[in-house]
Amino acid sequence: MVSPVTVVKSEGPKLVPFFKATCVYFVLWLPTSSPSWFSALIKCLPIFCLWVFLLAHGFSFLGAHSNARKILAGLIFSALGDAFLIWQEQGYFVHGLLMFAITHILYSSAFGMKPINMRAGLVITAVSCLSYILLYPYLSGPFTYLVAVYIALIGFMGWRAIAGLQLANDLWTWTKLSACLGAVLFMVSDLTIAVNKFCFPVPHSRAIIMATYYAAQMLIALSAVECQDVEVARKRT
């Protein structure tokens, strides 16, 4: 198993552009009330940097590992979702929702179906049901079922990421831990979006949403780096 220190030394420099782009977003803190292509670019820039991060490992790496290709595709759809959400008040919220729904399908496929880990599945199912029960009274029209489908998709993605973290059997790797933490942060980010949009204003919602979102995407991108180690560990199970 690769040590975290080795990971930081090998992957840290490749993530420097991502951290710089994230800092630019938070320093500029462009108002959401005035959507523009520039604000869309600034919001998507950290995700673009994660594309570059994966591409920096070479086309041969991406060609040899389907998990990495799926995560890269998920990042592409995420950037499209981010762009649509810039104009959510102009009627593009559902478009963004669709892009992120596709992202979660791709991530779920990348994380795979082994091991099953029904306990993790039951916990995520309970959390997802409670989230929908919280949101349901505030939903109307198409959002009644669109939000339900989206919660099911992100919940499934979270289950597949968490299921891979087999701490008890000592089969975990830093890539599995990274995927697990990334999925959980993604769920926190999206739940904050939903509560803030449909239920009531969440204090400092934008900072919470974007900080957890960027961290989630970085961790999920990192989980693709050692796909070969992940595949070997899966074969053991």
TrEMBL record:
EC number: 3.3.2.2
Organism of derivation: Seriola lalandi dorsalis
Name this polypeptide is given: lysoplasmalogenase
Keyword Membrane attributed: yes
Similarity field: Belongs to the TMEM86 family.
Protein's UniProt keywords contain Zinc: no
Membrane topology: Multi-pass membrane protein
One CC-aspect GO term: membrane
Superkingdom field: Eukaryota
Localization (cell): Membrane
PANTHER family: GH04784P, LYSOPLASMALOGENASE-LIKE PROTEIN TMEM86A
Entry's transmembrane regions: 37-59, 71-87, 93-113, 120-139, 145-165, 177-195, 207-225
Gene Ontology molecular functions: alkenylglycerophosphocholine hydrolase activity
Catalytic activity annotation: a 1-O-(1Z-alkenyl)-sn-glycero-3-phosphoethanolamine + H2O = a 2,3-saturated aldehyde + sn-glycero-3-phosphoethanolamine; a 1-O-(1Z-alkenyl)-sn-glycero-3-phosphocholine + H2O = a 2,3-saturated aldehyde + sn-glycerol 3-phosphocholine
Principal place of residence: membrane
Keyword annotations of the record: Membrane, Transmembrane, Transmembrane helix
Pfam families: YhhN
Lineage: Eukaryota, Metazoa, Chordata, Craniata, Vertebrata
